[in-house]
Write a structure and sequence with these properties.
about 160 residues; alpha+beta; SH3 type barrels; four-stranded antiparallel β-sheet; three-stranded antiparallel β-sheet; 2 helices
């Protein structure tokens, strides 16, 4: 077999990141319709990620956020998104490039994308830790305030 000089895996990754971009653009324009909501995991140390230092320290490597009930000021650019979430009743702005996203899910319609952990043209892919898991099965009030949760319960085993 010959070497993949076209880099199909990179082309696919970029196309899937466009799906994330387009879905978030719709939310900016129309709001979250119906029961749709997003779980977004991203690499906290990736280039272009701008989050408060205390969150970077608490979630070394990878963090998951939920865009559902209380999020503010969502903006989307070609490169990424910015959103304000509440952590312990303090509003914080997070800026995340699409290249830093490791997982994007909308559990309301059983949709999820998982991105390769290996470096792509965008130089993503540090192997890192994860946010704590909440597998109680109950919706907690903290999740509505920007609680960081794990996506492990949504991944197929």
């Amino acid at each position: 077999m010959s070497e993949d000089l076209i880099q199909y895996d990179t082309l696919i990754e970029n196309a899937l990141r466009d799906v994330v971009h387009n879905a978030m653009e719709k939310v900016v324009q129309l709001g979250l319709p119906g029961e749709h909501h997003f779980y977004i995991s991203f690499l906290t140390d990736d280039e272009g990620v701008d989050i408060p230092e205390h969150l970077k320290e608490k979630y070394k490597g990878e963090m998951t956020i939920v865009l559902q009930h209380q999020f503010f000021g969502l903006t989307v650019t070609k490169e990424g998104f910015s959103v304000i979430l509440s952590f312990n009743n303090v509003k914080e702005r997070l800026t995340v490039p699409f290249a830093a996203i490791t997982t994007f899910a909308d559990p309301s319609v059983n949709f999820a994308l998982q991105f390769q952990a290996s470096p792509l043209e965008s130089d993503i892919g540090k192997d890192t830790g994860k946010a704590p898991e909440d597998d109680s099965g109950e919706k907690k009030e903290e999740e509505k305030r920007g609680e960081v949760i794990s996506l492990d319960k949504f991944r197929k085993k």
